[in-house]
Amino acid sequence: MRIQVVHCHPLTDSYDHALFRAIVEMLETNGHEVVATDLYREGFQPAMTEPERRSYMGNAYDASGIAGYAATLKRMEGVILCFPHWWFSMPAMLKGWVDRVWGPGVAFTYRSDDNHLEPALRNIKLFGVVTSYGSPWWIVHLFAGNAGYKVLMRGMKPLCAKDVRSFYLAHYDMDHSTARSREAFLRKVRTAVSQL
Fold it and tell me: Which domains, from first to last, does the chain contain?
């Protein structure tokens, strides 16, 4: 299976980067074709350009600035996102990747007749998320309404194949994590990815 693993964290010695490396290694060990996309190391520019914004609400979207990223996404069979939640949301660089790459003609077709988006990533049969939150589970879910989950699983996932398989793995309360809790979550991630 061709799987893109998209990582977003500025520090290579972070726990999230260790998760990213583990995901890539496990997929490669199991014979998958992996495209490891490390947004910070690649210098991805998250800010939408003026031409992109001006063309966004039509199907003549100017994707010239992200053509390579768009081409990669269109040929993948799976996507796994690996990142931390900051302020209950994805980091700005990852949000910029979503804003710019998951645009018209790539992730969806804009239907002006009835104002809806027609999914265009039917090639994506696997949509996975490996993430972390500084806050405990109860704050993320009960206080903040888990907005990050909703963007990913209710906004992005429906643009993929109708029968897309998905998983969402989260390490909560990272602000009080321990070596034991981090190791346990890493094992959970390795097990989940090994079963793909």
Answer: 2-194 (3.40.50.360)
